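It is worth pausing here to work through a concrete case rather than discussing structure prediction in the abstract. The textbook approach is simple: state the sequence, then state the predicted structure, then interpret. We follow exactly that order.
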Amino acid sequence: MEPDASAPADLVKLFTDGACSGNPGPGGWAYILQHPASGQERQESGAEWQTTNNRMELMGPIEGLASLKRRCQVELVTDSQYVAKGIQEWMPNWKRRGWQRKDGNVLKPVMNVDLWQRLDELLAAHKVRVMHVLGHRGHPENEACDRLAVEAYKELKRNGRSA
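Step two, the predicted structure:
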């Protein structure tokens, strides 16, 4: 990635994805973090034995945001409507209701509340703008994150231990 001298010094681009082999089953998450001003890029991935696709989709942004050392402007790019809508639309209502969601006229606990609450903490530490992209449609970083996430759970299965 070439440095972009016109990019703000505090801007980072965070691309994330999650994947699961079975739902539940072994799953992987990945992120690519780009710093346009310096041209630096890093990526990370991991896997869990017994998880769901939605949990893995949440782990990408959690791990990516947790890796940041200072407050940043973050462009978070995800192919997960669950993550995008969760952050932009659902989370404010969940928080107002004590992390409960409406199911008809009944309040029920939010699924994956542990991860949503961790993500909420991390989002508060940064200025985050979420962008949803369509998965498997040729977006280079999204495709790369998908490959990393899938490879992470395949490696887990090959080695029989956490990646």
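Step three, interpretation. The first strand starts at residue 11 and ends at 20. The chain has one domain: 11-159.
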